[in-house]
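[stage:ingest] chain + small molecule (5-phosphoarabinonic acid)
[stage:ingest] validated
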Amino acid sequence: MNNTRAEEQQMLEISAPNNTILRQQSAGQHPGRWEPDESFVRDNRLELDLTYIVNESGHGVFISRAELEALAPQVIEHHRQLKRGEGDCRDGKVPMLGWQSLPDEITPEHLDDVRAAADRLADKIDAFVSLGIGGSYLGLAATVKALTHTYYNQLSRTQRGDRPEIYFLGQNTDPDYFRDTLDMLQGKRIGINVISKSGTTTETAIAFRILRRLLEEYEGERAGEFIVATTDKARGALRTLAGQKGYRSFVVPDDIGGRFSVLTDVGLFGLAMAGINIHEFVAGFRQMKQRTDGDTFWSNPAMVHAAVRYLAHQKGKKVEVVATNSLAVYEITRWMEQLFPESEGHHGYGMWVSPSMYSEKLHANGQMVQDGERNILETFLRLVESDNTVAIPGDPDDLDGLNYLTDAGRDMNFVNRLVIDGPAYAHFNGGTPNMTINLPRRNAFAVGQLYYLMERSVALSGYLAGHNPFIQPGVEAYKKAMFALAGKPGREQDGRAIAESIDALERTII
Ligand code: PA5
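[stage:predict] done
[stage:export] tokens:
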């Protein structure tokens, strides 16, 4: 059979190398120092598009420029306070603002050390298991997923850029998930990084106990060589254990809370383990720091982003659907699901963040976004350029009527842009204002910019709402109840009181 030129082209695309794998391989081989040049910065600039939310024409004003400008002085004042270390930013006595200046403070030497430590462990193991929950898990896991192949662990080691398989445990207590993961580790040489700032988080501690036992069975007295602990520099059970057993350890800085810690060693060691260029990641943070340091409202995307969300909340938007067109980037929307609610959900205030993968969710809660209760703000996290192209083949019969796409030279990437453009327009017209964050590519520089922008925005958001965004007493409340119910020594009395108050409840079970 004779193939048309277009068909030949399509076949070539399918057999072409996967660019995600090429990136992994090259990052694995060239882990070193990296500074972006001007054209790279220009091509990989994160953008905030507010067309469908700050709009005074067409379908009615949702947020006007005048409203934003009226709020701007307050936002600028909070921005200055944060930079000066003032305002409600303390956890105990410590101002939790170390993340603000961190991008400029991390030295290339430190990054080289982290990478070298990761390389030494990577060379000895088949599988790396990162243990942690919340801020000690989500940023790292999201970045690994965003920048690596969907089926990373199933690729060959060469395809992974000579890096080990990567697993995450401790982020839940589901025994089946745990057991299934242990099955995957059978017969493999494993390395662990146990990450817990407090060193007392139950989920992480249980996971660590089990993995440590496994390692001791496999490696005997050498088990400690395969364990890294990332925790407080002086306090906590994990620090004590690391000291006693001589584990290689990293420090979670005092003045940086979990959800702001992805640029500390909490994130960096695991990223280096996955072969991700951490110099490039830091450069992305640094770039966004420069863009958001100034106090001219319209030139500072963090101030504008925070002000838009604040006004949307004032106008009744209580749910933020954060939708993306990339499964890799979807994991970052889950990081945002932690960063915003954990920082904003205080004293009856806050917006519920709902991560969504489009198209999938357009065929589910998309109905609600278009036409349900008008309490939704939508934020698109659009991946502008996917790693790969996938052609849509022509068909002589054209029974599905798709040849118009093929004939116009359209590929799946074109359609994947429309799953943002279409809903953005339709939802705006249906009364759901939306904004788009354009993430140019799946690279560490772009992701770093996004993280820093979101961190600065949520800090401003807490200040605008009048509460401390750097603490999470609500999370501590569940931890206390769990300790008490588990019968933890010292908490027996609380446990009895909770059990009694549960017993006293009228039961409705049908
Ligand atoms: O953002 C936070 O501070 C939390 O989500 C913590 O990261 C999470 O509770 C895990 O705490 P730890 O690192 O102390 O185990």
